Each structure stands twice: as structure tokens, then as C-alpha cells.
Amino acid sequence: MKVKICGITDVEAAIAAVECGADAIGFVFAESKRRVQPDRAKEIVSELPEYVLKVGVFVNETIEEIENIANNVGLTHIQLHGDEPASFSKSLSLPVIKALSLQNSDGLETIMNYPCEYLLLDGPKGKYRGGNGTAFDWKSINSDNFMGKKVILAGGLTEENVEEGIRLIAPFMVDVSSGVETDGKKDLKKIQSFIDMAKSKLIGGK
User: Fold this and answer.
1) CA-based angle 23:25:29, to the nearest 5?
2) Using one digit for the tens of pLDDT, what is the confidence trace for 67-104?
3) Structural domain for 126, as ranges
4) Residues 96, 117: contact at Cβ < 8 Å?
5) pTM of the entire predicted model
6) Nearest alpha-carbon partner for 95 in 120, 119, 117
7) Which of 45-49, 97-101, 114-118, 128-132 has the lowest mean pLDDT?
8) Is 59 in contact with 39 (CB distance < 8 Å)?
9) Which end of the chain has fewer beta carbons closer than 10 Å to its terminal beta carbon, N or C?
10) Residue 60: its pLDDT value, please?
11) Which of 110, 99, 187 is nearest to 136 (CA)?
12) Domain N-(5'phosphoribosyl) anthranilate isomerase (PRAI): where (predicted)?
């Protein structure tokens, strides 16, 4: 099972996450308490191995600004977490992760044909589009309907429930942010525990 640690804002947490086994690191460039400035993100990316995915999270940003940040920072993937139309996604030069905020399965069918390499299933919208620490009803989702898309499970994941999420959704990757934090900061022990659990052979990880 692949793991993305999102909402990274400093080099120490990024390096620690990769050393713990993270496959992807997420940087939030939208309104959020975890928002990071492009120059800081560029500094962090410069310390990461080439094989690690570097994902930029954007919400209703212009194509020009996304491309500018992606090129400057050294991103490998773009995560669209807003109301971007299909034509917007097709215009981007990097692989796209399209996020969908869910309460249950409502709205899932409408996004299945969205042009993207990955489909990220997130919890309900809160103050921000993502990172609210709330899960959707996993049991309402039929993973047989993903139409071959690589699915990333996000929203309210912790080391305590990631096993159930993987079992019910069978995602390509799991994505965590608030679930590996203590008092709003990335907790290296929680990152290690989460990754260990997600990659456990007991739940089909490797």
C-alpha cells in the first residue's frame, strides 16, 4: 500500500516521513492552516529523493499560477481540490489527482469520467476543502465502480482506522494529514505508526 503524507511544511517532517516509508509528500498551496509558501516547498523538495511523488494541492487556482508554482517548486503531480472543470485538468502539464469531498456515495458517479490519473476520495467539506479530519461513509462505496481509476483514500484516516479503510475501499494509496498530527504539528511517531499499519502485510500492504 502506498502512503501520502500531506500538509508538510518543513524539511524535518518531510525527510522523516520518507525515511518512515512515505511514497508521496503533499504541499498545500490553498487556504489552510497547513498552507506553505512556494519558496519553502521548493526548499523541502530539494531534500527529497527523486522517486518520491511531490504533490501540490490547489483549490480553484488559475492554470498559470499552478504551472508557475509547479515548475518553480519541482512538483510531480497536481491535486485539484476545488470546482475545476474537466477542460481545466486537460490543460495541465503534470499528472492530475482530482479530489472529491464525500459524505457518502452521492456525486461519485459524476466524477468517474473526469480526466485524471488519480481520484482522491476525501471526507466532507469543513472550514477548508481538505484536511478536516473527517471520514465519509466508507461502507457506502462500491470499489467495483472505480472503472479502473487509481483511487486515493483520504479524510479522517488514523493508525486506528486505516486498516478498515483499506479493507473496504481497496485504494491504490492512502493520504493522511491531521491524523498524524499532535497539537496541529506533524508527529513523527504517528507518521511512523500510520505508515507501518498501512503497509502491514496483514492488510495487503507491502
Assistant:
1) 155
2) 999 999 999 999 999 999 999 999 999 999 999 988 65
3) 2-203
4) yes
5) 0.90
6) 117
7) 128-132
8) no
9) C
10) 96
11) 99
12) 3-196
Catalytic residues: 6, 122
The rounded distance, in Å, linking the Cα atoms of 87 and 184 is 36
> What is the overall mean pLDDT for the chain?
90
User: Residues 195, 198, 201, 204: what is their CA dihedral angle, to the nearest 10 degrees?
Assistant: -150
CB half-sphere exposure, 123, CA atoms < 13 A: 21
Beta bridge partner(s), residue 3? 174
* pLDDT tens digits, one per residue of 146-201: 767 799 999 999 999 999 999 999 999 999 999 999 999 999 999 999 999 999 85
Amino acid 204: pLDDT: 47
Measured from the Cβ of residue 146, the count of other Cβ atoms closer than 10 Å reads 18
* Domain tally, the chain: 1
CA distance 130 to 163: 21
- CA atoms of 135 and 144, how far apart (whole Å): 20
Q: CA of 112: how far to CAs of 38, 80, 116, 149, 168, in Å?
A: 31, 15, 9, 8, 19
